[in-house]
Design a protein that fits this description.
By secondary structure, this protein is mostly helical. The chain has a domain at 177-279: Serine Threonine Protein Phosphatase 5, Tetratricopeptide repeat (Alpha Horseshoe). It contains 15 helices and no strands. Helix 2 (31-55) packs antiparallel against helix 3 (59-72), helix 8 (145-157) packs parallel to helix 10 (179-192) and helix 12 (213-225) runs antiparallel to helix 13 (229-236). The longest helix is centred in the N-terminal third of the chain and has 25 residues, at 31-55. 35% of the residues are buried.
Length: 279
């Protein structure tokens, strides 16, 4: 009789354990879990609408939607990155920089984010800070030619042309034949006063089958600064009319006569008005 009672008790305990486990497996979600799931669904929907709105060209409304998504999910990086991209496209660089800085706290190893932040800092004329972002982008994506190019441009802007040229060369080791890196390396030589080196670099670029009118005009500029008016005119004339060529030759001569610091400042303005396009 005692053994039978013991078997009944044990069977009841086992049944209770299984019932408890079954109950745990099928426990309904808590109110907090439901709220979080609903929030995530709403944020995803807002981001989809924002992306469609942005592609449609309404950047202001898109920025507002990205801000709303960030307010709803402040721990996520995606809304902030999209907000930064949109604000930068609007030219609101200070606000974009704030969004990127917050996003980096959430996604510090995001190379695209670092690159976008660096470009925004360049637009704010903060090249030293931009260089740090481009270095972080390179660390996260060592084969990204854009980041090496951005670093070189930032260092040139900061006046460190030797370091800039090293950045371009390091980039060309990682991404050989990158057109933006090659172009800006030659331009950096112009900024540093190495006109002969710049001419050689631009000659190589202009000789490539995919060379553009901009490449040829850069070569004409280098010839002009070297004092080779004939080659400058011939090269510029491949894409420009006679009047434009004459104007350019006069501009080259004016640049040659400037003091080194003034010439560098003028060349920087010229480069930034027609930056090399990254692939």
């Amino acid at each position: 009789m005692a053994q039978r009672v013991r078997r009944i008790v044990l069977a009841g305990m086992v049944a209770g354990i299984w019932a408890g486990l079954a109950g745990c497996a099928g426990m309904p979600p808590t109110a907090g879990e439901i709220a979080e799931e609903n929030r995530d669904s709403q944020v995803a929907q807002i981001l989809r609408i924002a992306e469609t709105t942005r592609r449609g060209g309404d950047l202001v409304s898109a920025a507002g939607l990205y801000r709303r998504a960030h307010d709803m999910a402040p721990e996520r990086g995606a809304p902030l990155i999209a907000l930064g991209d949109t604000l930068a496209a609007l030219g609101s660089f200070s606000d974009a920089a704030q969004a990127y800085a917050l996003a980096i706290e959430r996604e510090p190893a995001n190379a695209d984010l670092r690159y976008g932040y660096g470009r925004t800092l360049m637009a704010l004329n903060r090249p030293h800070e931009a260089a740090e972002q481009f270095r972080a982008a390179i660390a996260a994506a060592p084969k990204d030619g854009r980041a090496f190019n951005g670093l070189g441009v930032a260092l040139d802007q900061a006046g460190d042309h030797a370091a800039a040229q090293q950045a371009y060369r390091d980039g060309l080791k990682a991404v050989p034949d990158h057109p933006g890196l090659e172009n800006n390396l030659a331009f950096s030589m112009l900024l540093a006063g190495d006109v002969a080196g710049a001419v050689a670099g631009f000659e190589r670029i202009a000789s490539l089958p995919q060379a553009t009118a901009r490449n040829r005009q850069n070569l004409a500029l280098a010839y002009g600064l070297a004092g080779d008016t004939a080659k400058a005119a011939t090269t510029a004339g491949q894409d420009l009319g006679e009047a434009e060529v004459r104007n350019n030759l006069a501009a080259y001569e004016r640049l040659r006569r400037l003091a080194a610091g003034e010439r560098t400042a003028e060349l920087l303005r010229l480069r930034d008005s027609r930056p090399a396009k990254a692939p």
